[in-house]
Amino acid sequence: MTTETTVDGTTATARIPMYTPEFAADPHGTYAEMRRRHGSLVPVLLHPDVPATLVIGYHTALKILHDQDRFPADPRRWEADGIEQSCPVKPMMEWRPNALRSSGVEHARYRSANVFSLNGIDLHGLRRVVQDVAVGLINELVQVGKADLITQYAFPLAFQVLNTLLGCPPEIGRRVAIGMAQIFEGNDAEAGNAMLAAALAELVVMKQQEPGDDITSRLLQHESALDVPEMVHQLACIYGAGIEPQQNLIANALLLILTDERFSGDVLDGNLTVRDALDEVLYQDAPMSNFGISYPPYPVQIDGVWLPADQPVVISFSACNNDPAIASDQRAGNRAHLAWSVGPHACPAQSAAYLIAQAAIDQILDALPEMELAVPASELVWRPGPFARGLAALPVIVPGSPPIPMV
């Protein structure tokens, strides 16, 4: 007979908090302790008032991610239970009319529009855009001799490239960036949400009047006939996926290359590729380490555990990737990780995201092969928060070199 347990009714003190600096400093140590105490399904707190179940078993995650009926992505019943408007994690979890936060027919409609708009990206042209942006940023770095690769390279590169893909002018993009940062960091997230919505609505109206060869215009041209509010939410989702996770992927991979002898000695010598370093990061420190959120509409049993209705179920991509049940010492060239999610909600922009990160890293390694960390790796600080895996700063020493000519 299978023993049935439940996470329903778990006291707040028994739940493991995921929003603390301690969790950010050592998530893998926490995942190991979670696995020892709870198995594949863990009672956690995303915020002091937001209980959830964290999935840390690889095979359990696959079952959940492929099961939209029992694990839909629509959070409206959860929100109806009284989540505070000011809760800092709410903007990352709340219902929006987009593919990420919908299921069934609604999800199919929104996803088809997004896939259509993203498939129109010219990947060859995108590589040139990344290279041009990277050269401009690198030329600024070599003038000062030191830099923070987050604020002076990874973020502005991801931001400028995405603005180009969306056809977004700098002034509107600036407000988008501020709003997105407030949402991801939980710093006045409600105000950030409002700023983001207003800026994106302005972009949509501009593209209705002056369409171009860009993601925003293609979304407007799709047969799903998205209205302005729906357009705003599609764009918010694209910005959310295209700035913070992209900058984290670039920065986390650069950290690995600068500190791990398997990469620091081999990437530049040509034995291991930047793509291999990216895959290692996607396994170990995925940019969105814990996401893929679903909301069971009724009590659901999985792996002998009953999950309560209308309570978030969060997939820990990083913990699942490192599940001992699928452990492997060979990461190079192995892309069985869950960092892009799988199933109906798998990221539709994987090719573009890989290309942007790889081109950005290739460019800075080629230009600054002697670049090194300005502080010991042990002194680097990871930003707290339950969802993203990102450094607060990545300070480096940049040897003086002549500016790279723009071609």
Helix content percent band: 40-55%
Distance between the termini: 70 Å
Total domain count: 1
SSE order, one letter for each helix or strand: EEHHEEHHHHHEHHHHHHHHEEEEHHEE
Provide the structure class: alpha/beta
CATH class, anyone? Answer: Mainly Alpha
Number of strands: 11
Count, helices: 17
User: What is the architecture at the second tier of CATH?
Assistant: Orthogonal Bundle
Residues in β-strands, percent: 5-15%
Largest sheet: 5 strands, mixed
Mean pLDDT: 90
Task: Kindly report the spatial arrangement of strands forming the biggest sheet.
Answer: 2-3-4-9-6
Based on Cα principal axes, name the global outline. Answer: globular
Q: Which consecutive residue ranges, at least 5 long each, have pLDDT under 50? A: none
The CATH topology: Cytochrome p450
Can you tell me the CATH superfamily?
Answer: Cytochrome P450
Radius of gyration: 21 Å
How would you characterize this protein structure?
Helix 7 runs parallel beside helix 17 and helix 9 packs antiparallel against helix 10 (189-209). The longest helix is centred in the middle third of the chain and has 21 residues, at 189-209. The chain is built from 17 helices and 11 strands. It has a single domain, classed as Cytochrome P450 (Cytochrome p450), CATH 1.10.630.10. A hairpin with a 2-residue loop joins strand 7 and strand 8 (305-307). The chain is α/β, with parallel strands linked by helices and 407 residues long. Strands 2-3-4-9-6 form a 5-stranded mixed beta sheet. Strands 1-8-7 form a 3-stranded mixed beta sheet, with no helix packed on it. A 3-stranded antiparallel beta sheet has the order 5-11-10. It has helices at residues 21-25, 27-38, 58-65, 76-80, 90-93, 104-119, 123-141, 150-166, 170-185, 189-209, 215-221, 228-242, 244-259, 261-264, 274-284, 317-321, 350-367; strands at residues 5-6, 16-17, 41-47, 50-55, 146-148, 290-294, 300-302, 305-307, 313-316, 372-373, 395-397.
